[in-house]
Fold this sequence. Notes:
The structure is a single chain. The protein is built from four helices and 17 strands. By secondary structure, the chain is mostly beta strands. It has two domains: 2-217, Immunoglobulin-like, CATH 2.60.40; 227-314, Immunoglobulin-like, CATH 2.60.40. Strands 3, 6, 7, 9 and 10 form a five-stranded antiparallel beta sheet that branches. It has a four-stranded antiparallel beta sheet with strand order 14-13-16-17, with no helix packed on it. A hairpin with a 5-residue loop joins strand 13 (251-258) and strand 14.
Amino acid sequence: MDVIFDEYAGQVVPIRLHTWWPNSNDCFWRFNETEIEDRLIYHIYDPPWRPDYIYVPSFRFEGVFLADPSDFPTTATWYAFVRNTLASLAAIPSPLRIANFTQTPGLDSVHVSFDVIADDSVHVRGGLRLNLVVTEWRHRCPIPTGRHDHVFRDYLWGYAGYPISMQMGDSLHFDWAYYVDDEYRTDRLVTNLYIEDFPNFGMVQGYREEVPPEYADVDVGRDVVPVSMEPASPNPFSSTTRIAFSMKQAGNVRLSVYTPEGRLVTDVVDESMGAGYHYAVWDGRDRSGNKMGSGIYYCRLVTGETVLTGKMILLR
């Protein structure tokens, strides 16, 4: 889906809202639970509530259910349907445009300036709502596993947006700012704007732009920690555990596992790695592939002059 969204760069504004499961290890669930839940309820539920709609993958186009991958005989036919649907939606002319967009990062916030201009008659069934949504691209989260683009972070005006009213020839100017939470990856932030026909789901206009890259070294007014390592997760574990770490600069990384007596069990990572967020998985085995027994183990991260350690408990 990310590849398809990239094909329509500049035509669509993709925002990934995570369907929720109350799991303390799920990095999407932990952050901004209320706004994600409110927006999902707005899109997915239609009284009486339909909890059977909460499944993965579940797709909504302009907030309305059209089809899911399981409705198609092959992956190729599903992708073709998505591409055709996006092309049809992107081809609909909009009476509104977002112009003169600028954004300026501050010490702990991003200041945004833009105009909304009505070039044609505006016909909507409900009322116009202007939304500013903060997302991240290439967000790496140990649980759920992997890289995730277009990850939702925050609604500036809440899930319902900011009400506006426009007629042909009108022009509205906005100067807004949003706070940068210390959980954000400041080098991967994206400001997204969209105007919708509320509460009828229809999208009237959209715009997205990455926050300037010079913001990469700003971390909510504090110095960026050169190297950090998160606690292993899950911990205790029975088969595998993930060890996540971040580096401000590229360098050689060695992540090793030791017994409490200091005996080397295995090297999980021993290579040169780039700056950013990384994670590695230990499968509870030694260098020869033998399963280790239940007990306490220590992970040791060495990069440059930094040495960090963490404690893990293996339960067979």
